[in-house]
Amino acid sequence: LVIGSTGLLGQEMVRAADARGVETVGTFAHGVHADAMRLLLEDGEEVRRRIEEVAPEAVVLCGAMASMDECERRPRDAFDVNVEGPMSVATACAEIGARLLLFSSDAVFGEHGAARLHEFDMPDPPSIYGKTKLEAERLVMDASRGNVVCRLGMLYGARPRGGRHNLASLVREECAAGREVRLASDHFVTPTYAPEAAAASLELLLRGLKGTWHVCGPSCVSKYEFALAVADEFALPSRLLAPARTEELEHLAPRSLRACMSNEKLLASLDVRMSSPAEGLRLLRSERR
Ligand SMILES: NC(=O)c1ccc[n+]([C@@H]2O[C@H](COP(=O)([O-])OP(=O)(O)OC[C@H]3O[C@@H](n4cnc5c(N)ncnc54)[C@H](OP(=O)(O)O)[C@@H]3O)[C@@H](O)[C@H]2O)c1
Q: With contact defined as beta carbons under 8 Å apart, do 209 and 146 qualify?
């Protein structure tokens, strides 16, 4: 059961499962999606009913209020969806003996001295979003030690139909329309190609691995540098990309400016591909998506 199969990661999770011959059932929250069923994480009764109906071997929880600023604006809703939701899912999974894979985020970390953040580093989220994700991690691991938490770096890939932009899709759309995009040159992230994040996370689940994993690409780059790589790969005018300081961009949510994770543990445990931005963007273009 892929909860949130209509989002950026969820769509890739369904594809990755398909490629491995694993049957999936997907869910959405808003809009109309003929190939998925509706499930609202904040409705504990619906969550329990759906999980009982589908009786999956495993639940992959991609669904979330994933916009950091939206969580800051609506903290109560963020808590209901990102904390109460995973708790209902974890309880229902424990009841039927299904394993649960929760997606979390580098946003669980605050300002940190470390050049790269490892699974053993201490989380200290500055934002509501990060706090909800950390709380969900704890609930999910407490519900069963067999569960898996994958903390993702900044995802990029094909924008889902009617879904949120990611940095690659935003830069492509804005630059193609001739509009300037301002990007933080002081905010460093680990860009992660969504299909590879999905494939690696699925592999963890299929191999029976448990606990917390950092699933991210190898490079630590600023958002501005990543945008330059997008413009380069898609032959877009890089003069439309304007470097800015994060504080000038007026985000609502506070964020750590150096949230680069290490994928060392993942690569030591699995034979998976995690591409650099140049490689991942080339794959994205070659897949014509
Ligand atoms: N994107 C990133 O850079 C990033 C980085 C780190 C971690 N993550 C985490 O990775 C996961 C997937 O992120 P994403 O970028 O794929 O998110 P996304 O594109 O925004 O997709 C979110 C999915 O969750 C569903 N959803 C939204 N509200 C829901 C609710 N109240 N109940 C049930 N489902 C709901 C959406 O359904 P509808 O389409 O119907 O709205 C959609 O399928 C999230 O847990 C996110 O926090 C993402």
A: no
